[in-house]
Design goal:
495 residues; alpha/beta; Amidase signature (AS) enzymes; 11-stranded mixed beta sheet; 15 helices; 11 strands; 13% strand; transferase activity; ATP-binding; glutaminyl-tRNA synthase (glutamine-hydrolyzing) activity
């Protein structure tokens, strides 16, 4: 039998139900893999005792025949999800030592479904970043390397620890969050699958907020089938989240037929940007051909306001962040800086925030506070909100014209070296989000699927964008793409 930690959710579930392995065996295999992978810096809070306790409970449920789809399956949890009694820092020093007395709705749903938490995974501070380099724990490292080159690469961000852990088989799957591409871009950089559901499909309660109108939790997995299984367990209406949709959660896995005959797939001309590497353009064209061969109709479409998406996103997201992060003041949460004699409350706020927030978080708070200030609210924030409405309408018009899904690249490049983007100009890093932020602004579902390797042996991904609430149909198209590309490559173990 293959090493148990290398299994996906569907394979492991089937073995558990046949009695050919146990949750404790699966969990121990993952714990052993985690203990030997510190070079990747994927896990930042390991919880082996909790994992084994939950694995034993899952085995008891399996014996009784009371086993939901995720029962007994070991997974990693991004550090942005609050987990009862376990450090939940969102990658920030300002939350050092914070152990919530409650569980986020998504992790509670997974726990109720019998999933086994192996620990908390690295991430960019407050999910602000595209390379996992703004984390207070230091960067997570991509298990993939360029052929013949030992340069450490980014696993993407902000869910970099999640993507690295799934790609390196340190868990069977992991949770991520996506505010502007933070599930899909890391998935593309590591040869894994990641789905950002429709805004409101998964509860945001107990997830440390970055930008509340954009954040959405989703699964990061080894296959599309695994993504369907895990999304079904994570999703659902939550009265504690006012933006949570009161809709039934379909059986996403049952919808994976691979039959996409007659589907119309749109290719947006605005995504053909200057400077796109030839390997990514080639991958995109080949992906379209493969969907056509599977029976889909490929249609060129226009999303005219795409060019305004990135500037609108980098006004709206920091504005919401500056509001959300105002609560971290050294009084109610986390670390308080040491004060000097004579310091008052203002000095306490200043010193605590200066020490607790990293440079990227400080930058976004300041940008957000600026665009919300009295003289600039209309010029920046309200204008960005109007642009957001136009971007949403572009997608609505495309879907109204009969388009079933949209195919596009996920990122403008393969994984880059750690430190490569640490220039004086943060905009270079922000451009990583050029293909991904439109979905968040429009609240749409999107799934990243590994589709090939570049000339240096690094994975490249394609994303499919779907209609609101139609994740099942979107996952089925992704399943057809996955079958057609036949991507099975794994990183060579060096860690």
């Amino acid at each position: 039998m293959t090493e148990l930690n290398k299994l996906g959710l569907a394979e492991a579930r089937d073995l558990l139900r046949k009695g050919e392995t146990t949750s404790v065996e699966l969990t121990k295999a993952c714990i052993t893999a985690i203990d030997g992978s510190d070079a990747l810096n994927a896990y930042v809070h390991k919880t082996p005792e909790i994992a084994l306790e939950r694995a034993k409970a899952a085995d008891a449920r399996l014996k009784q025949g009371d086993a939901p789809a995720m029962c007994g399956l070991p997974i990693g949890i991004k550090d942005v999800f609050c987990t009862e009694g376990v450090d939940s820092q969102a990658g920030s020093n300002i939350l050092k030592g914070f152990k919530p007395e409650y569980e986020s709705t998504v992790t509670q749903n997974l726990r109720d479904a019998g999933a086994v938490m192996l620990g908390k995974l690295n991430m960019d501070e407050f999910a602000m970043g595209s390379s996992n380099e703004s984390s207070c724990y230091g960067a997570a490292v991509n298990p993939w390397k360029r052929d013949g080159d030992d340069t450490p690469l980014t696993p993407g961000g902000s869910s970099g620890g999640s993507s690295a852990a799934v790609a390196a088989d340190l868990c069977l799957a992991a949770t991520g969050t996506d505010t502007g591409g933070s599930i899909r871009q890391p998935a593309a950089f590591t040869g894994t699958v990641g789905i950002k559901p429709t805004y409101g499909r998964c509860s945001r309660w107990g997830v440390v907020s970055y930008a509340s109108s954009l954040d959405q939790a989703g699964p990061m997995t080894k296959t599309v089938r695994d993504a369907a299984i895990m999304l079904g367990a994570m999703a659902g209406h939550d009265p504690k989240d006012s933006t949570s949709a009161d809709l039934a959660v379909p059986d996403f896995e049952a919808m994976l037929t691979g039959d996409i005959r007659g589907k119309k797939i749109g290719l947006p001309k605005e995504y053909r940007v200057d400077g796109m590497p030839a390997s990514i353009e080639k991958l995109w064209n080949e992906g379209a051909e493969k969907l056509k061969d599977a029976g889909a109709e490929i249609v060129d479409i226009s999303l005219p306001h795409t060019k305004y998406a990135l500037p609108a996103y980098y006004v709206i997201a920091p504005a919401e962040a500056s509001s959300n992060l105002a609560r971290y003041d050294g009084v109610r949460y986390g670390q308080r800086s040491t004060l000097d004699a004579g310091d008052g409350i203002t000095e306490m706020y200043e010193k605590t925030r200066a020490a607790g927030f990293g440079p990227e978080t400080q930058r976004r708070i300041m940008v957000g506070t600026y665009v919300l200030s009295a003289g600039f609210y209309d010029a920046y924030y309200n204008r960005a909100r109007r642009v957001r409405t136009l971007i949403k309408k572009d997608f609505e018009d495309a879907f109204a014209a009969g388009i079933d899904a949209i195919l596009a690249p996920v990122t403008p490049s393969p994984a880059f070296g750690l430190g490569d983007m640490a220039s004086a100009d943060p905009v270079e890093m922000y451009l990583q989000d050029v293909f991904s932020v439109t979905l968040n602004l429009a609240g749409l579902p999107g799934v990243a699927v590994p589709a090939g390797l570049n000339s240096q042996g690094l994975p490249l991904g394609l994303q499919l964008i779907g209609k609101p609430w139609e994740e099942g149909d979107l996952l089925n198209t992704a399943y057809a793409l996955e079958q057609a590309t036949g991507f099975v490559a794994k990183p060579s173990k060096w860690w």
